[in-house]
Amino acid sequence: MSETIPLDSEVSGKTILIAEDDPFILRMYQIKLESAGFTVVVKTNGREAYEMIKSNRPDLFLTDINMPELSGLEVLSALQADSFDFTGMPIIVLTNSSSIEDRKIAISYGADYLVKAELTPRQVLDRIVEKLKDVKS
Amino acid sequence: MASPNSPKPTTSPSSRDEVNHVAQELYRQNMELAERNKTLALLRKIDEIVLGSATDLSMVSELIADTVVSETSFILFTALLVIEGQQAKLVPHAASYMSSGKSKHLKDQEKIFSKLPIHAQASILKEVISGKTHVVTDTLSSILASSFPSETAQQIQGAMAIKNFYIYPLVSREKVIGVMILGVRIAKADMTAYQNNLLDRLAGVVAIAIDNSMLYSKTQVVTARLKEANRHLKDLDKAKDEFISMASHQLRTPLTTIKGYLSMMLEGDAGKITPTQKQFVGYAFEGADRMVNLIADLLNVSRLSAGRFMIESRDSDLGKIVEDEVRQLQSHAVAKNLKLVYNPPKKALPMLPLDDNKTRQVIMNFIDNAIYYTKDGSITVDAEKVGKVVRVTVRDTGIGVPPDAKRKLFSKFYRAENAQTMRPDGTGLGLYLAKRVIEDQGGTIIFESVEGKGSTFGFELPIVPAAATSSVTKKVPTP
Hints:
heterodimer; A: alpha/beta; 5 helices; B: alpha+beta; 5-stranded antiparallel β-sheet; 5-stranded mixed β-sheet; elongated; disordered C terminus
């Protein structure tokens, strides 16, 4: 395992919105992403995440599924109902749910679907960097 | 016969007798042929009943009884009784009477006579069943309840114009399954051999028809019960799957935190730690990771059995996956004094459309097994491009697989005996899933082993142009 490597200049300073209701898990990703040089905004329920995206769109949206108010998937469907333009805002759905239905829905929004327990925060960080670089190219 | 053109022949009285005799004989043979024809038609009709759509025993019995009286000229009455239930009780199922006349009055009589109260406990019926042979009686009262006035019975029999009742046991597969009563209008002495023969044959054919119908009803009942049981099993299976899903979710959440923070300590996010601390935290991390993988195995097996197992590919760097897994398990090997060597490919492997997580797990399983089942020596991991495939192998100097276990090694929950001795807590799922994951991605499993010498586990995956991602998955569009 290596020490956290500083991000490429092309993705550092980007804003990541994390929607996650478990405080320990939220803090874990927040520390990892901030120490890598991202600006991190955290929301602990779907409603607030939805409002934040509408008013101040982040560069990437990292969301849990099961959350109070609105689930991560409901946030996506609410945005779609508002004809929100998802272009340039990669979405990563990060959950411990094993529902194939959830996975299908996430993928239908063009989101990545990752299982939290199977990845370390570092691996999630790598995926975020990868997604942001895809937007660039 | 004389020809009209020829002069009238002078025939002697004796030759005239002869002609008469021949004519009579011809007439008799004609009658017999007609009778034979009718018999054949009757037997064919009963066969049709057997093969037809009527499947309910009472319906089949009624059809048979009606057919017998309407298709023969000498049998006016037919009744069928079938042995039923656990007490093997004889139960009347159908009766039919048809008179030779057609008047309204006779039609009304037919209805009444078709409802004759046959007494199932009549001693003559018991005699037929126990004797397994037919009995003829000329008194109707012998098949009616003893309380039935015998004079009335006699009058009825007269009105029915029946001389004798032939009572046949219905024997199918060497078992008496019922009784058939045939009321015949011809006196016993006047019955032709053919008519007697017909009665015998009829008993056989009807027995088969009744038996088939009973078998069919039994099959129907059993099928219905099986369907019900099957539905119940499916419900249980669904409940089990839901439970596994729910439990997995609940287990994964705390594991995410344990694994995540431990990994961050190892990566220095909590400041510098001593080498010993790093080692201990590393062990804890691996333990948590192992548990995550076990949960994934469980979920995958449950999905496989529910037909919901899915490969989701994205372009992946197989070389990096192998390298990661070797690095993750290095400390395990060191702890057991084993050498874990990775020979990376000479040239970087092409990107392949793979289910990253599942493929990772396969490699982890192979290396993990190799470490577990090797007492001393080494584990060598190779990854290379060979022609149109990428080959990954994990070679160990472990206990190997006994020859008789080789065939079953990749089956669900199977574990070779020597493996069970060495590691009593294995699940027997790793190789089973590995085979599915590799084959579902178009690859093949590599497996060679010599008991006591070591094993090689691995796979070959076809090199597919990165753009042509597997059709199993919906390709995620880049936003």
